Amino acid sequence: MTIVLGEPGVDELGEVVGVLREWQHDGAPMQLHPGDLGWFWRFGAEATAAAVRTWSRDGRILAIGLLDQPELLRLTIAPDAQRNEELAQRLVEDVTEPERGVLIEGKVNIEAPMHALVQDLLAEHGWNTDEPWTPLRRDLTEPVKDPGVRIEVIGPEQAHVRTAVQRASFDGSTFTDERWHAMAAGPPYAGARCLVAYDDQGDAVAAVTVWSAGPGKPGLLEPMGVHREHRGHGHGRAITLAAAAALRELGSSSAIVCTPSSNVGAVATYESAGFRRLPEVRDRYRDA
Asked: What is the mean pLDDT of residues 174-180?
């Protein structure tokens, strides 16, 4: 059977999320997580479906891509197919030719598991490596230390608090209450939690969303931010500890996160909360 490039409809996204859950395991390379689709769901189910691509053979999904931006494809591959030559060749063909409907023309980036064969083939086709990212992981076998601040799990009534901290943490953020509700309505959010940390004055100072992939599998922090007016007081470490504790309650075996290596403050924050650096990863990119 030949490999088929697919664009799932909204009613097929549940299957895609389920396959992504199956592919998560401790020791796997940093890869697309169900929580990445969950966080993208803030734009709505239709937009999420339009951004997802699948590669299947004989009805089985072998690779999943998320067009996180028009110029960024986040790609992951079934564990037993990462060195499959036919699949790797098809992936490269589909991402190299804009008329295939995967990427637009111009400078584009592809994120893929570092040891997958598609990395080698992209290099042979002239795709360069971009700036490094640092994945970090924390084992959740043992209980997590108390964060030392008040933490609240955010429900629909407090969505405005969560979105306000997000906008105060990231320049240019477009996270609105409406988008929080869209995200929370998506299937991945059934295994997710939004947490907000408060300081001694009762101000919301940091926030995180955590995503479980199911019991015994790594959970994801995406995103974590500290209010720009409350930085330098340990709130990043506190909310990260709370995130790890929440994932442990959800049954996750570990907590994972990935941040640009150039963001040394973020790397240090995660390390202070018990996360361990993993080998750096890099996107592949092609100039316009």
From this structure: 98
